[in-house]
């Protein structure tokens, strides 16, 4: 699985996430009980890079992955920047 994730990473340019960020989600997906109902939803897919990676985890976990996107991008905002899960500044540009 990790080889497939890295292959997707190295086959694309301008990746909007780090490998560590995706691995946090992959681990959560794989830890979900197989007997539980429900689907995995990705809200916003940009170039589909994370979608490709999450689809691998979803298949291994026997879960359905639903990808939703407005294809309008993010609206302009004036919210003060916050910090991501690793403490680095986090901003979302229009």
What does this 3D model show about the protein?
- The protein has 94 residues and is an alpha+beta fold.
- It has one domain (2-72).
- Helices cover 36% and strands 15% of the residues.
- It contains 3 helices and 4 strands; from the N terminus they run ααβαβββ.
- The chain has helices spanning 2-10, 19-31, 49-60, and strands at 39-43, 64-68, 82-83, 89-90.
- It has a two-stranded parallel ribbon with strand order 1-2. The protein has a two-stranded antiparallel sheet with strand order 3-4.
- Helix 3 (49-60) links the parallel strand 1 and strand 2.
- Helix 1 packs antiparallel against helix 3 and helix 2 (19-31) packs parallel to helix 3.
- It is globular.
- It starts with a helix and ends with a strand.
Most strands sheet: 2 strands, parallel
What average pLDDT do the residues reach? 84
How far the N terminus sits from the C terminus, by CA atoms, comes to 33 Å
SSE run: HHEHEEE
Write the layout of secondary structure elements.
Elements: H1 2-10, H2 19-31, E1 39-43, H3 49-60, E2 64-68, E3 82-83, E4 89-90
Helix pairs in contact: 1-3, 2-3
Overview in brief:
By secondary structure, the chain is of the alpha+beta class. The chain has one domain (2-72). Helix content is 36%, strand content 15%.
């Amino acid at each position: 699985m990790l080889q497939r994730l890295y292959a997707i990473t190295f086959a694309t340019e301008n990746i909007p996430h780090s490998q560590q960020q995706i691995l946090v989600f992959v681990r959560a997906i794989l830890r979900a009980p197989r007997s539980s109902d429900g689907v995995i939803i990705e809200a916003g897919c940009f170039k589909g890079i994370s979608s490709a990676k999450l689809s691998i985890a979803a298949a291994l976990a026997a879960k359905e992955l639903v990808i939703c996107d407005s294809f309008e991008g993010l609206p302009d905002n004036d919210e003060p920047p916050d910090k991501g899960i690793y403490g680095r500044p986090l901003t979302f540009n229009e």
